[in-house]
UniProtKB/TrEMBL annotation, chain A:
Residues 226-251 are annotated as: Disordered. This is DUF969 domain-containing protein. The keyword Transmembrane applies. The chain crosses the membrane at residues 56-74, 157-180, 192-213. InterPro entries: DUF969. The keyword Transmembrane applies. Coiled coil: none annotated. Keywords: Membrane, Transmembrane, Transmembrane helix.
TrEMBL record, chain B:
The keyword Membrane applies. Keywords: Membrane, Transmembrane, Transmembrane helix. InterPro entries: DUF979 (IPR009323). The chain crosses the membrane at residues 6-23, 73-93, 113-131, 143-163, 184-204, 224-254, 266-289, 309-328. It comes from the Bacteria. It comes from Streptomyces antnestii. Pfam families: DUF979. The keyword GTP-binding does not apply. This is DUF979 domain-containing protein.
């Protein structure tokens, strides 16, 4: 029971917002020692699992390419592209991305997106540009963060609740592997993937609806922001109906 | 045959080269410790090959030709934790283009600039879908290797499309992003370490026992709720539904929901796993999905993506419970 103190270290650390690297490091050492490992065994466990989990850092290899393209205006071009798509609001755009991410992941194409490959260079700037157009002005920092956060969320939700509909994905193979070897069953991946479909639909409806509500929230908060800063209210009603949001809130 | 270890060596090399650039960067007030951090991280990648080889040899003697002990790598990880945990890593002033230059370049290149960006997923997907099992790649690693090959191809295409001649430019640009991310880049790997230490120390078994103790007998709906909420909470703690699944399934899913109450196996297990995925949406422990995007998007609030996902995760947990209760019996 005492090894659960390691979990407590993690929870306390994250709740009190300590440096997460430090929290995780301390929790690992504490749990290892409480679990009756000697210091050398703890070191070896750190080393072995660090070597085993190198694949989660592989995404860093994307950074030089994305950095190069951003230098040459990738994000600016992404904004221009979304500008041509008439009435597409940030919420609608992200809902469409969510659907695309789910459908492609359901066909096993889960490496098509990701925070480094698509969200930072393409999805987030497009969503920001769409939000600025429909609300009629440059976004204040807080709302910009909100739009970016929702851009990241549509990628993650789409991946999680799409990939399980595909039979050759890690989680499905983990289930069949575990159950078939532990309990001597003959469970087929297709049976499991079938049950992922209703949840995929739920995820699309729930997160899609929240993305569409994001549009209204943005408009409301933009009006509030304008009022707080004693600016003339942005021409949001006109902008969102006609798609003509190029006039900026006066500043 | 292309091995995934080659990709790790390439990443290690990139980190080491970037660390050398950092050491020479006088605009970074912490340039020496920053260079030490990224350089050491880079060295852990090839060193890790030796550690993995030792594990392979332990499982099947003679399967790897050279091995290295794991303890020095553990010590290096502790050093990385100290460097990142006590804010010894900093960043320099990036040399980059101005907004006006970027807009002019975007106007000049037009949508051609998307071609290299799209090269990455196209190559990755071709490798994962068509070349897996062709003998060209190490078995089961086609997706990772495809991502690496996609990046190399995209870099070549990108240099061609933009007309950039110097390889130092993408390296510098990538380094600036690396510096902006800082220690968040290390976190996913550290959490994987924590997860495996939790497993070795028996945290999972303890949580399973706890859940079993509080589980009420003979109520189907309560057992469904206990399994789904258990998967959710356990995943929030461990940051990974894969770690939660065997424990919760051994504690409730299999003995109670399937054997005792005769639930549909596939429904119970598939939906149980997805209850865990709902938890992954809500936890900073799943750093690669929830914290890394925040730092990549340069958010001030590193919990921004989690806040955007939390309501969805909770509602989906409810959906999991309802669907399992209705359709698994």
């Amino acid at each position: 029971m005492i090894v659960l103190l390691g979990v407590l270290v993690v929870i306390l650390g994250f709740v009190t917002r300590r440096n997460p690297v430090l929290v995780v490091g301390v929790a690992g050492i504490v749990t290892g020692l409480l679990g009756r490992m000697n210091p050398l065994e703890v070191l070896a466990a750190f080393g072995r699992s660090f070597a085993d989990s190198r694949s989660v850092t592989v995404f860093a290899i994307v950074l030089p390419v994305i950095g190069l393209l951003e230098r040459y205006g990738l994000r600016e071009q992404a904004r221009t592209l979304i500008g041509r798509l008439g009435k597409l609001s940030a919420g609608r755009f992200l809902a469409v991305y969510l659907l695309i991410r789910q459908v492609t992941a359901a066909f096993g194409l889960n490496s098509i997106g990701g925070p480094a490959q698509t969200v930072r260079p393409l999805v987030a700037p497009m969503a920001e540009a769409a939000a600025e157009r429909t609300t009629g002005g440059p976004l204040p920092d807080r709302l910009r963060e909100k739009v970016r956060s929702f851009a990241a969320s549509s990628d993650t939700v789409g991946l999680f609740f799409g990939e399980d509909c595909f039979i050759a994905i890690g989680s499905i193979l983990l289930i069949t592997g575990f159950v078939n070897s532990t309990y001597h069953q003959q469970l087929e991946p297709t049976q499991l993937a079938l049950w992922a479909i209703p949840l995929a639909v739920c995820a699309l409806v729930v997160h899609g609806a929240r993305l569409l509500l994001l549009d209204r929230k943005l408009e409301r908060e933009m009006a509030l922001h304008a009022a707080e800063n004693e600016l003339p209210p942005p021409p949001r009603a006109a902008a969102s109906r006609t798609g003509n949001g190029s006039e900026e809130a006066g500043k | 045959m292309i091995k995934v270890e080659w990709l790790y060596w390439l990443i290690g090399l990139v980190f080491v080269v970037m660390a050398a650039q950092m050491a020479a960067d006088r605009t970074n007030p912490k340039r020496w410790t920053s260079a030490a951090f990224w350089g050491l991280l880079g060295l852990t990648f090839p060193y890790g090959t030796g550690v993995v080889n030792a594990e392979l040899n332990a499982a099947q003697p003679g399967s790897a030709s050279w091995t290295l002990p794991a303890e020095p790598l553990g010590l290096a990880v502790l050093a990385l934790i100290v460097l990142a945990g006590f804010n010894f890593i900093g960043k320099g002033v990036p040399v980059t283009t101005t907004t006006a230059q970027r807009e002019a370049s975007a106007a000049r290149l037009g949508s051609k600039i998307f071609i290299p960006a799209l090269t990455i997923p196209v190559v990755a997907i071709v490798c994962a879908s068509f070349l897996d099992g062709s003998g060209l790649f190490e078995t089961g690693k086609a997706t990772l290797i495809g991502l690496g090959l996609g990046c190399i191809a995209a870099l070549a295409v990108g240099m061609f499309v933009t007309g950039e001649r110097k390889i130092s430019v993408p390296l510098h640009a990538g380094r600036s992003m690396l510096e902006a991310m800082g220690s968040a880049l290390l976190l996913p790997q550290l959490l994987a370490v924590l997860g495996s230490i939790f497993a070795v120390a028996g945290v999972g078994t303890q949580v399973g026992t706890l859940v079993n103790d509080v589980l009420p007998n003979n109520s189907k709906y309560l057992a469904v709720i206990a399994y789904c909420v258990g998967m959710f909470l356990f995943t929030v703690i461990m940051g990974n539904a894969f770690a939660a699944f065997p424990v919760m399934t051994a504690a409730i899913g299999w003995p109670v929901l399937i054997q005792q109450m005769h639930g549909n196996e596939a429904a119970v297990l598939a939906i149980g796993m997805l209850a865990g995925f709902s938890g992954t949406l809500c936890t900073p422990m799943a750093a690669n999905f929830n914290i890394v995007p925040a730092s990549l998007l340069e958010l001030k609030d590193q919990y921004g993506p989690i806040k955007a996902q939390l309501p969805t995760g909770l509602v989906l947990l409810g959906c999991n419970i309802v669907i399992m209760a209705l359709f698994a019996y």
